[in-house]
Amino acid sequence: MDKYTIPPQTRIGHVHLKVSDLDRALKFYRDLLGFELVTMYGDQAAFISAGGYHHHIGLNTWQSKGAPPASPQGVGLFHTAILYPTRKDLAAILDRLRQHHYPLTGASDHGVSEALYLDDPDGNGVELYWDKPRDQWPQKPDGSIEMYTKALNLNDLLEELSR
Fold first, then answer.
1. Same domain as 154, residue 99
2. Which of 3, 10, 20, 147 is the most buried (most CB within 10 A)?
3. Number of domains into which the chain is organized
4. How many Cα neighbours within 13 Å face the side chain of 27?
5. Which CATH number belongs to the domain containing residue 111 in this structure?
6. Rounded Cα–Cα distance for residues 88 and 130 (Å)
7. Domain residues for 142?
8. Are residues 61 and 138 both part of a single domain?
9. 149 with 155: CB under 8 angstroms?
10. One domain, residues 57 and 96
């Protein structure tokens, strides 16, 4: 097979999630995380975005209305990663989650990024993160990127709000 390299400008455009309760999913993604509702597709699907894009996340109950969460041990989506533009923006959503007593499942410094982990109401993993500037990414002796998982200091992150 010949080698193909995807164009460097390629991005993940959106994720589309099966949910069991559309209203409950909208309360999480729209009302808590702050995504904007772009359009509804009847009473079975919603399309939400940041900044007016046609949709970053699709939510539907077409085959999943009232269904239980997917098994954590099964195959499927591990998490949807939502990239925030700055560390201060990540601190702001952490503060919002704390004010609403929404539980985190983890918080990590990956060297190249800092991330908060939580589950949506259907048990779908969600990563909220920001990328550190590229010149701060740690490198291995061979020049490749060194990624790791270390505990993220949440108090230090929240201090970003007062800077």
1. yes
2. 20
3. 2
4. 8
5. 3.10.180.10
6. 9
7. 78-163
8. no
9. no
10. no
Q: Which of 29-43, 72-86, 98-112 has the lowest mean pLDDT?
A: 72-86
User: In the predicted model, is pLDDT for residue 1 greater than 80?
Assistant: no
> Are residue 119 and residue 162 in the same domain, yes or no?
yes
pLDDT tens-digit series, residues 82-116? 999 999 999 999 999 999 999 999 999 999 999 99
Q: What are phi and psi of 37, to 5 degrees?
A: -75, 120
Tokens encoding 78: 């591990």
Which residues, other chains included, contact 13 with Cβ-Cβ below 8 Å and sequence gap of 6+? 56
135 by DSSP, 3-state: which?
Answer: helix
Q: Name the DSSP letter for residue 103.
A: P
Whether residue 66 has pLDDT greater than 90: yes
pTM reported for the whole predicted model: 0.93
Tokens of 130: 């920001």
Please report where in the chains the tokens 């505990």 appear, as a residue: 151
Beta-strand (E) ranges in 35-156? 36-41, 45-49, 57-60, 80-83, 106-109, 113-119, 125-131, 150-151
Domain assignment present for residue 3? The answer is no
Looking at the structure, tell me whether residues 33 and 85 fall in a common domain: no
- Same domain for 100 and 60? no
